[in-house]
Design goal:
Distance between the termini of chain B: 85 Å
Radius of gyration of chain A: 18 Å
Structural class of chain A: alpha+beta
Largest sheet of chain A: 4 strands, antiparallel
Strand content of chain A: 25-35%
Number of helices of chain A: 2
Number of helices of chain B: 18
Radius of gyration of chain B: 26 Å
Largest sheet of chain B: none
Oligomer: heterodimer
Shape of chain A: globular
Order of helices and strands of chain B: HHHHHHHHHHHHHHHHHH
Chain lengths: 130, 428
């Protein structure tokens, strides 16, 4: 699983709402091409972008089991998940390769963003010898 | 091969509601009939393309599904016998399958009854949609799951819960009483409308199956219109779908971004669908007191008939939104009326409508409110305010294509806007 984790600190590029139209267009086109390629190679399991954190809700169960729903994450939240890919690869190195390509998505002036992509293995069922 | 597969699928979808109807009337159990027909359909989809379609496909489906139902009854009875010897409740005559080619006594089409049953008001819209697509639309659980991007087992459970709910309601399989029909028809129209929108609003993504949902909604609306040709709102809904679907090819750009109505290449609209929709709504508009679907279709027709965005008859659209608001008041309609009002009376009047809407609170925080305000502020000569509203809207929409579109628009506007004055001009 490739997690596109964002924060103002870890991303050393200008916020997306300050990009020019051409820069945005190139970025959107890149993401689209990436998904088409991964689907073509049979490696794409799922890819989703998430709505912005302003729309998120935090749900907690109280001691009596009643839900407490708050509008969150709050203003001080520094990191948020922007989206993910789940890929099915021959070997772990390929997942790193795909993450590297995604990390280099074009940003301002068409230069690579080199944003951090967290790679995690999806847990599967118990091993067969258990 | 593919073509014959498609032909078989079309045939199966047309027959599905009829076969479910026959079996439900015969055995009095919609829950079991629906399951059995689904199995028979899957068997047919596997066999017919290779072995050819049987002489009486409907009879074949009824026979296979009947056999499954009888097996189910037998299994159920055996289980009961083991559990309780005294429980021999299933009458012997219900164990024997009637002749497979037996025609309906009334020879009528059950599709409408089935639609009313699946769009039961006690079901959530999501459940009613799933059940309608399966029982009336003849889609398999896997196909519906694909379209809604959920696992097949999840969709299977949703359908199963919906059927149990109908079973628990004790509703008989027959047309609702005359006095209940208008209310039930409203639910049916609403469910078809939701199926259409599910396909329409996501046609930008890589999920082509969802466009199929719009096609399926149109097919079901056509069937409903054929059954109730005199109903103005049914005709209105079908017209609305056709007039909206006609623009689908022009709605997305090369990168999958949304192209708003005013910027669409109108030569890419489907002229045949526009003509069909316009003819339908023209004939249906004067039929009885006008309802929300006919009014929305009329608005869509005014847009579709305009050769260019500038040549749109905005006073006509504004008047139609006014009527629509009086028939079915809802904040989104008011929002659309504000857009039309700005085209006729200028942005200031429209911003006033928006201020009222915001005070009312029902649309607070809704991304559409920011989109419309951005549009009005841009027209009013406040690009900076427009950019700010576009960015807020982009943060709040749940549609990736729309977010791309709004972010792009904000970027374009920010680039066009003159930079804020550095210092004041040197004064005398």
């Amino acid at each position: 699983m490739l997690l596109m984790q964002f924060s103002r600190e870890s991303a050393d590029f200008a916020p997306i709402d300050s990009w020019t139209q051409e820069e945005l267009r190139a970025h959107i086109g890149f993401m689209r091409d990436t998904n088409v390629k991964l689907a073509g190679s049979g490696e794409l399991v799922d890819a989703q972008g998430l709505a912005m954190p302003d729309t998120a809700k935090i749900v907690r169960s109280r001691a009596d089991g009643a839900p407490v729903v708050t509008e969150g994450p709050f203003a001080e939240t520094k990191e948020f998940l922007a989206g993910w890919w789940i890929v099915d690869c021959e070997e772990p190195g390929r997942a790193v390769e795909i993450a590297t390509a995604i990390s280099a998505a074009p940003g301002p002036k068409g230069e690579p963003l080199n944003m951090p992509i967290e790679v995690r293995q999806v847990m599967s069922g118990p091993p067969s010898d258990l | 091969m593919t073509r014959s597969g498609d032909t078989v699928n079309d045939l199966l979808r047309e027959l599905a509601p009829q076969v479910v109807g026959v079996l439900t009337r015969r055995h009095g159990d919609f829950y079991a009939a629906e399951d059995a027909v689904q199995e028979a359909m899957l068997a047919a989809a596997a066999q017919w393309p290779a072995e050819g379609v049987p002489g009486s496909p409907r009879g074949w489906l009824i026979q296979v599904a009947s056999r499954r139902m009888v097996d189910q009854v037998r299994n159920e009875q055996a289980r009961r016998r083991r559990e309780d010897l005294s429980a021999r409740q299933v009458p012997a005559d219900r164990l024997a399958a009637p002749p497979a080619d037996e025609e309906d006594p009334a020879g009528h089409d059950d599709t409408l009854t089935l639609l009313f049953l699946c769009c039961h008001p006690s079901l959530s819209p999501a459940s009613a949609i799933a059940l309608t697509l399966r029982s009336v639309g003849g889609l398999s659980t896997a196909e519906i799951a694909d379209a809604f991007l959920v696992p097949e087992s999840t969709m299977g459970q949703r359908i199963s819960r919906a059927k149990q709910r109908i079973r628990a309601s004790g509703l008989p399989f027959r047309m609702p009483d005359r006095q209940d029909r208008p209310g039930r028809l409203d639910t049916v129209l609403h469910v078809l409308y939701l199926i259409f929108n599910e396909g329409y609003s996501s046609s930008a993504g890589p999920d082509l199956q969802r466009v199929e949902l719009s096609r399926e909604a149109i097919r079901l609306a056509r069937a409903l219109h054929a059954l109730l040709p005199e109903d103005g709102e049914v005709a209105g809904l079908l017209a609305l779908m056709l007039l909206t679907h006609a623009r689908s090819a022009a709605r997305t750009g090369p990168d999958g971004e949304l192209v708003p109505l005013a910027e669409q290449d109108r030569t890419r609209w489907d002229a045949a669908l526009v003509a069909e929709g316009v003819a339908l709504i023209t004939a249906a508009l004067p039929r009885g007191p006008v309802g929300p679907y006919r009014l929305q279709a009329a608005i869509a027709a005014v847009h579709d008939e305009a050769p260019t965005a500038d040549a749109t008859d905005w006073p006509q659209i504004l008047a139609l939104y006014g009527v629509l608001e009086s028939v079915s008041a809802n904040p989104v309609v008011t929002l659309n009326r504000a857009v039309a009002a700005s085209m006729v009376h200028g942005p200031a009047a429209a911003l006033g409508i928006l201020a009222e809407l915001e005070a009312d609170g029902r649309l607070a925080g809704h991304h559409r409110l920011y989109v419309v305000r951005a549009h009005l502020l841009e027209q009013a000569g406040d690009p900076a305010g427009a950019v700010e509203n576009l960015r807020t809207a982009a943060d709040r929409t749940a549609s990736l294509a729309e977010r791309h579109h709004l972010t792009l628009r904000a970027a374009r506007l920010a680039a066009e806007a003159p930079p804020p004055p550095a210092d004041g001009p040197p004064g005398p």
